[in-house]
Amino acid sequence: MEEEQHLSFFLEWYDPQSDQHKPYVLHYHSDSTIELIERYNKRVFLKRIRIPTVTLDDLVPGGSITVYSRQLTVLDVANEYTKQLVKKKATKALFVIRPKGYAHMGAIIKVLEQSGLVLLNAVMVQLQQYHMNALRPHCLQTSSATLRGGGDDAEFLRDVSVLVEVKLTTPNAFEDALGKLDAARLMGNVLICESVGLGIFSSPHSGSSVSSKQPMLSGFPTTAVFDNCTLCLLKPRMIREGRVGDILDEIVKAGFEISALTLLHLQINDADEFFRVYKGVLRQYHEVLKYMCSGPCVALEIRGEDVVQRFRDFCGPFDVQIAQALRPASLRAKFGKSNLFNAVHCTDCPEDGVLESQFIFHALASK
């Protein structure tokens, strides 16, 4: 009998007790079961089993999965067969939300999610001329008639843009997204690049003059200000269920200023360091850590006067049932399911707003 083909990936797990990174090979089978093999001695670490929280969409380089409380980082595909199948399945596209489209960023991302596009990366950036030069050859003519001639660069150089890298999950997802953006009259707020991602900006001859000491998010300097700010984390379920656009739309329409944005994968040690201040009040502390590391989050720096208190009120009580009873218009009331799956984290104490923003947008970005 011919042996079943399966997808294989290189992973590693950081063992805090031995302070070592332990390498594994994960086999992903056609029935969605997985198997873990110790990479170098070939011993079976985990026999073939189905883990409902681990899907093929989670197995992307740089991402992470959680298997029985162990957070494993996906390093790369393990063979040419997997490389070709993943490449065929995971066609990318890049949407650049223009500075003038800031107020519509939530609506634009909502359209992408509703069209079946999966967020791979998102980051708020201040583009430079060398970025525009790298971007120009890849833009669709429908979204960049003036950009191709260089006359439109000034808008991008003056203010921040949001880069959104997506994976196409169906053959028609890209065209569906374009049609919906056009129907919603949002096309003028976005540049669209087919079959590329943020990697187009990583050319070694890009001409960047950014200091190597500056914190970088997906290769870009952070736009975080670290002043009069609070932190919001959109939790993994919001990304999995395609609700990022909905929440961003609510935040912007409520009048809050989003000064920094990034999609990130928290590692368990980083999550523990960040949430340790809440350890005494979180009843499911270790479950919270595992959940926050189970998939990507979206982090936002939000600015304004008395913003910690105002945004905390906007998010609503931590307990979703209380939020639905007392603040039905709050984010947790609208998007939360339980205390663990309550949609968002927000800074609790006014003195912690800058500290939490610095942790995400400076300390983690500097690692």
Description:
The chain has 3 domains: 7-83, Roll (PH-domain like), CATH 2.30.29.170; 91-203, 2-Layer Sandwich (Alpha-Beta Plaits), CATH 3.30.70; 222-363, Alpha-Beta Plaits (2-Layer Sandwich). It contains 13 helices and 16 strands. It has helices at residues 80-89, 105-114, 129-135, 153-158, 173-183, 236-240, 244-253, 268-275, 285-292, 307-315, 320-326, 331-335, 353-363; strands spanning 7-15, 20-28, 33-38, 44-50, 64-67, 70-77, 92-97, 117-125, 161-168, 190-194, 216-217, 220-221, 229-234, 257-264, 297-303, 344-346. It has a 6-stranded antiparallel beta sheet with strand order 4-3-2-1-6-5, with helices on one face. Strands 8-9-7-10 form a 4-stranded antiparallel beta sheet.
Briefly summarize what is shown.
InterPro entries: DM10_dom, NDK-like_dom, NDK-like_dom_sf, NDPk7B, Nucleoside_diP_kinase. The chain has 367 residues and is an alpha+beta fold. It has helices at 80-89, 105-114, 129-135, 153-158, 173-183, 236-240, 244-253, 268-275, 285-292, 307-315, 320-326, 331-335, 353-363; strands at residues 7-15, 20-28, 33-38, 44-50, 64-67, 70-77, 92-97, 117-125, 161-168, 190-194, 216-217, 220-221, 229-234, 257-264, 297-303, 344-346.
Q: How much is the radius of gyration in Å? A: 21 Å
Tell me about the biggest sheet? 6 strands, antiparallel
CATH class of the largest domain: Alpha Beta
Q: What is the CATH architecture descriptor of the largest domain?
A: 2-Layer Sandwich
The third-level CATH topology of the largest domain is: Alpha-Beta Plaits
Query: How many β strands by DSSP?
Result: 16
Report mean pLDDT, rounded to a whole number: 89
Task: Detail the poorly predicted runs.
Answer: 203-212
Beta content comes to 25-35%
Helix tally equals 13
Oligomeric state as shown? single chain
What's the number of domains?
A: 3
Distance between the termini: 49 Å
Strand order of the largest sheet: 4-3-2-1-6-5
Overall geometric form: globular
**Class of secondary structure makeup:** alpha+beta
Helix content: 25-40%
For CATH, the homologous superfamily of the largest domain is named as Nucleoside diphosphate kinase-like domain
* Element-level helix/strand string: EEEEEEHEHEHHEHEEEEHHEHHEHHHEH
